[in-house]
Each structure stands twice: as structure tokens, then as C-alpha cells.
Design brief:
This protein has 426 residues and is of the alpha/beta class. The chain contains 14 helices and twelve strands. Strand 3, helix 3 and strand 4 form a beta-alpha-beta unit.
């Protein structure tokens, strides 16, 4: 039976808890969320019928600050996937050393099957269920898979109506002009690239001579691909994507002159590339898992959890030197063992993809000040925080002779435990 995401998150935590010799009390507290919300959302569809949707919000730990984390709309969402993502958000905020805790939300739905008006009613319904338990000082949702800045704008508006005051800081990832921050769109993908840059400097690799293969072509993967070329001067050779028409995944590849901005221009809001236009421009369409076996220097899994596992980890090319986890939980523990044995330098998810939550934090700060920074200032501040986070984890890995994932957990868990101690919880 496959390991579910929450079991995977707990297994990763337990491994480092043993290394840190955490007390049974602290361990039990951190293995589980502090609070969970399960609820039904009735939505009147355009046809006039009322459908009931299952919604969730999990608040894992708020010792370091308000819970923070995205809202995912996906047909295969489960409470365990939300628990896992909330747990990873706690570690992500802690490793980036921003004053927030971990949370995550979800609705079991395929958003591509809904009209815009149905999506608006659904997200407003989610807020109606949760508004007493979210807020700028409690829990701050954000976009994730299947949700958009516009949907965050609707949610902020609904919360403001219910509370009777304009409260932009209740939600981040909002549209620019509606309380959103410049730089938020690029933040997660560029953050992946900033951490890759630091890893390459550590490994003494010339970034301009490297090649990367990317899984996914949603927001994170798009800007990781763009940043890989613009910031590092390296070459991307492929991305994978989910084709909504075929209901299947493919890899789109081109050995030379791969142009992520062109592909972005023929991609819909759900990351589905127009296959015919790609082929016309000289791109090859390959199998879904072709990205994994490419002869590249860097692999960037930037789709969903559990994508590198015991069944396919052996397909990773001997040329791969860095795996940068743009997605949350893309590597299972048994695949981790193989990656560690092969000496591939791993950039763990909650370090590598923490650029999004970092700029979400900046958005909250700007909302509080009612003063907004230019894009270059936002991205410079993000780069500064992620570079510091990378070196804190690298220093821990080198001093403790630890795998980078374990080192990231050591840094994050120690910071959360310290906050719990200072607050008198333990």
C-alpha cells in the first residue's frame, strides 16, 4: 500500500526527531495538527441545482506566528494531503525564518469543470464556513493548485463583508491593485532558482553550462524555467504537463532553443500546453515520465507529491547533480535513500520552494503598512531571505554530516521548539 502524504510527512519528522532526541511530549505535539476543520459547502450551480463540496482547513502549528498556507482545489484532495501540506508549511516558514506557522486548506473539486461564477460562489462559501477561524493574526490562506489570484480577491472581499471592515491581510496572493504584491507571481519559481544558484556555487558548477529538466508547467514550473534561463543562464530541455483535453500527462522537450516564455504563451491557467502549437514550433511530445531520465545536471520536480519514488528513482540519469524540489513532497522516503546513496545534492521542498510563502509574508507586511514596494525590492528581499536560509541549512548539513533534507528539518524543528519553549507551551 502506498504511503499517503501525511504518513510521509510524519516519517520524515520522526527520523529527525530521533536525531534531535526530542522528548515524547514535544514529538507528539509536532506530529499532529493543532486544529482541523472539515465542512460542507453548498453551492448553487449555473444550472440552478445545488451541489455540496467537501472543504478542509488544517492549522498545524502557530507557535511562531499566524498559520499560513495555500488553498488547493483538486479532485483527489484528501484530509491527509492537507495535513501533510500544513505540516510542511510549518517547517517551510521556520526554515525561511519568517514569523508564521503552518496551515493548508482544500476543496475536493476539479476547478476546470466550474464556470467563473461557480468558482466565485465556491470560494465565498469556503470563507463563510471559515471566517471566524481565519484572519491576519490567526490564519492567512493563499493560492495553491487550482486556485488563482482572482479567487483570493473574492475571498478577501467576502471576509471583509462578513467582518465589516476592509481586511486585505486575511488572504495573500491577491491580484496587484487589489492588495496583492508585485513579484508574487514569480516568487516560488524564482526562489527555486535562487537556491539552485547557491547550490551550484557550493558545488562549483558553472550555471551557464548546465541543463535542467522540469516536471510540471503550472506557476512554479513556469517561473523556475524562466528564471533558470534568465538568472542562471542555463538551458531547460523539457517540462511536463497535464493535458486537459486528453486527460493525460506528457513531456514537452527541445534540446536546443527551449523557450519557456513561448510555452507559457500557449498554456492555459491550469498549466495545460497547446500541444499542436508546441509541435508546430519544433517541440517533441514524449511520455509523462520522460523528464525524469533526461541527461541533465538538474531535476526540478514542480508538480505534485510522491512523483519520485521507489518504482522510478533508478531512471534518474547519472549526469544529475542536483534535485531541486519545487513541489511539496515530490520525493518519497524510499527514493530519498537512493538519492542520498548516489550523492545527488538535494534541495528539499520546504527550503527550495519557500519563495512563495516568503513573498506572501511580504504581502501581509505591505497590507499592514498600506504601502507597497516595487517589484525589484520584493525580489531582492526574497533573494536575501532564501540565500540566508540555504546557508543555514548547508552549515547544519556540513557540521552534522547530515543529508540536506535532514539538515533543513533540524533547523526548522529547532526554531519551532524554541518558540514553543519561549511561549511556555512545553
Amino acid at each position: 500500500m502506498a504511503l499517503n502524504p501525511f504518513q510521509m510527512a510524519q516519517q520524515q519528522f520522526d527520523h529527525v526527531a530521533d536525531m534531535l532526541k526530542l522528548s515524547p511530549t514535544v514529538r507528539e505535539f509536532l506530529r499532529w495538527p493543532q486544529r482541523e476543520f472539515h465542512f460542507h459547502i453548498p453551492v448553487r450551480m449555473d444550472s440552478g441545482e445545488v451541489r455540496i463540496f467537501q472543504g478542509y482547513r488544517v492549522q498545524h502549528n502557530d507557535a511562531r506566528g499566524p498559520n499560513k498556507g495555500g488553498l488547493r482545489f483538486h479532485p483527489s484532495e484528501t484530509i491527509d494531503s492537507v495535513r501533510a501540506l500544513a505540516t510542511w508549511m510549518t517547517w517551510k516558514c521556520a526554515v525561511a525564518d519568517i514569523p508564521l506557522g503552518g496551515g493548508k486548506g482544500g476543496v475536493i473539486v476539479d476547478p476546470s469543470t466550474l464556470s467563473n461564477s461557480e468558482k466565485e460562489r465556491l470560494v465565498r462559501g469556503w470563507v463563510q464556513q471559515m471566517w471566524k477561524n481565519i484572519g491576519p493574526r490567526q490564519d492567512v490562506p493563499a493560492p495553491d493548485v487550482g486556485t488563482t489570484p482572482q479567487m483570493m480577491g473574492w475571498m478577501m472581499d467576502e471576509y471583509s463583508k462578513l467582518t465589516g471592515q476592509y481586511t486585505p491581510g486575511v488572504i495573500t496572493g491577491k491580484p496587484v491593485g487589489g492588495g496583492g504584491s508585485l513579484g508574487r507571481t514569480e516568487a516560488t519559481g524564482f526562489g527555486v532558482v535562487y537556491t539552485i544558484r547557491e547550490a551550484m556555487q557550493h558545488l562549483k558548477l558553472e550555471s551557464g553550462k548546465t541543463r535542467a529538466a522540469i516536471q510540471g508547467f503550472g506557476n512554479v514550473a513556469q517561473y523556475a524555467a524562466i528564471g533558470y534561463k534568465q538568472i542562471l543562464g542555463g538551458n531547460v530541455v523539457c517540462v511536463s504537463y497535464w493535458d486537459r483535453d486528453d486527460r493525460a500527462s506528457y513531456t514537452v522537450s527541445k534540446e536546443k532553443d527551449f523557450d519557456p516564455q513561448f510555452l507559457q504563451s500557449i498554456t492555459d491557467q491550469y498549466g495545460s500546453i497547446n500541444k499542436a502549437k508546441a509541435v508546430e514550433a519544433g517541440y517533441q511530445i514524449e511520455s509523462a515520465d520522460a523528464w525524469l531520465s533526461k541527461d541533465v545536471d538538474v531535476l526540478i520536480p514542480a508538480a505534485l507529491e510522491g512523483q519520485i519514488n521507489a518504482q522510478n528513482v533508478a531512471e534518474i540519469s547519472k549526469t544529475v547533480k542536483i534535485i531541486a524540489e519545487g513541489a511539496n513532497g515530490p520525493t518519497t522516503p524510499d527514493a530519498d535513500t537512493v538519492i542520498r546513496e548516489r550523492g545527488i545534492f538535494l534541495l528539499p521542498d520546504f527550503l527550495c520552494n519557500s519563495g512563495g510563502v516568503t513573498v506572501s509574508y511580504f504581502e501581509s507586511v505591505q497590507n499592514d503598512m498600506n504601502y507597497y514596494w516595487p517589484k525589484n525590492e520584493v525580489l531582492e528581499k526574497e533573494d536575501h531571505i532564501l540565500t540566508g536560509a540555504f546557508h543555514a541549512v548547508l552549515d547544519m548539513a556540513l557540521s552534522e554530516n547530515a543529508y540536506m533534507r535532514d539538515a533543513a528539518y533540524m533547523v526548522a524543528i529547532a526554531r519551532v521548539v524554541k518558540a514553543m519553549q519561549l511561549r511556555g507551551w512545553i
